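Follow-up to my post from last week.
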Amino acid sequence: MFFQSARTLSKLGLGISAVGLLSLSTPAFSQSTANSINQMALAATCANCHGTNGVGVPNAGMPQINHLSSEAMLTQLKAFKSGARTGTIMHQLSKGYTDEQLQTISNILGKK
Amino acid sequence: MNRRHFLGVSSGASLGLLAGCASNPINISKANVVVVGGGYGGATAAKYIRLFSNNSAQVTLIEPNTEFISCPMSNLVVGGHTSISNISTPYDNLSKRHGIKVVKDMVTSIDAKQKTVRLASGATIKYDKLVLSPGIDMMMDRVEGLQKANQEGVTVQAWKAGPETVLLRKQLESMKDGGVYAISVPTAPYRCPPGPYERACQVASYFKQFKPKSKVLILDANDDVTSKGGLFKKAWASMYPGMIEYRSKHNVVAIDSKKKVIKFDVQDDVRADVLNILPMMRAGNIAVQSGLANSNARWVNVNYINFESTAAKDIHVLGDSIQVAPLMPKSGHMANSHAKVAAAAVVAELGGLEINQTPVLTNTCYSFISADEVVHVASVHQYDAKDKTFKTVPGSGGLSAEASKLEGVYAWGWARNIWADSLG
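User reply:
Got it. Predicted complex:
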């Protein structure tokens, strides 16, 4: 899974990222870089209301999401999508995403 | 960019500004991206090009204003429920936190062949990618006498938040009780579809408390309310009975500034005390002057997958200035959404990577029907590769069931978060 490798990279931090620059020409690595940008752009569709990278403005009035684990976030998003959880707007927005997209969003924005 | 700079910015990233981006190793430090316009589209694009490129792309934002004043929430200033300073955000975080070069200037011309922009100051800047988010301009010449009436202070638009918003508020405060405020709605598409109807609510909320004999007239060129129609009509009837009058198919063609009279193509003249006349709108001047507005010389056609202009390579156009896809509103939230799709595509193209084939846009729009009660409309737009456009997902999105104070809290939460997402 891409996410596992991305998380491993993330844990290893900058050193790996800097080394990674040298291997940009490797097709497999380029693809994972492209995927990473695409996934960040998908997760950024939540940022308008819930903050860049899921970190909302404190006490702004919008429910915070950055305390949720990826699993908990996905559970909530799926509950909104199925109608099991009601809301003012999230039950409408969640229905616009595929299950795979909700999984990606949760993986990116869930508490690390 | 040297290694020290790269490490320095990246350590800033580890403070949590872009924690999720650590897995993306792209480095396009030789790329120069110029962003024109610091609104919801441009500011967001500038910031996200930095984020998606691991802070490596060199980004210059050109914006003439010293701070961003939000159009969403500005109707609350007209209604007397908030102030301009409460809806203003400085640009300095874009430079301090994200390393964007913010230049206080205006672009006067674009050379798409040489890939340069010329500024009012006389400077020329070269770009590898140009992101243009110029917003809208008013087609003042479509209404006879409007330019003159504006100059005389008889009419006002206040459709770009700022001094005009304050001027409109002052005109309402100066109006005698028993007077008439008229707002005209141009033929769609125009910036912020529900905006005129929200403004009518805001003016009525002020009149209801302070000038109860006064009247709000909505003169709409369209056949019916263009957004949230049921919710607005319910609010007008239940909260402002006898105060707000809605007239459809009222297309303004002329203004008599001496008599404060509005003339229409068919219907009888209307006299008002405060005249908020919104003419038809088009893409911002620079898009029209540079020939990019290739849809009826009014809006910019783009390839929706990366928001690149169909008229010029490596110029990506965002926000209210584009020819929209079906059911895509001209809104701040949508411009912010455009910007993220465009930013990802710009970074991928500069890095020699394949661009996203399945981009997603969202829109959320809150309207205040009083000081604190709000209704929304929301939508999700997925890219359709076959038809090369964005389409709303069947069964998704929708309207508020009814107005609520809870959504009033969320509306302010939305505003504070999108301002931080675009400029913070």
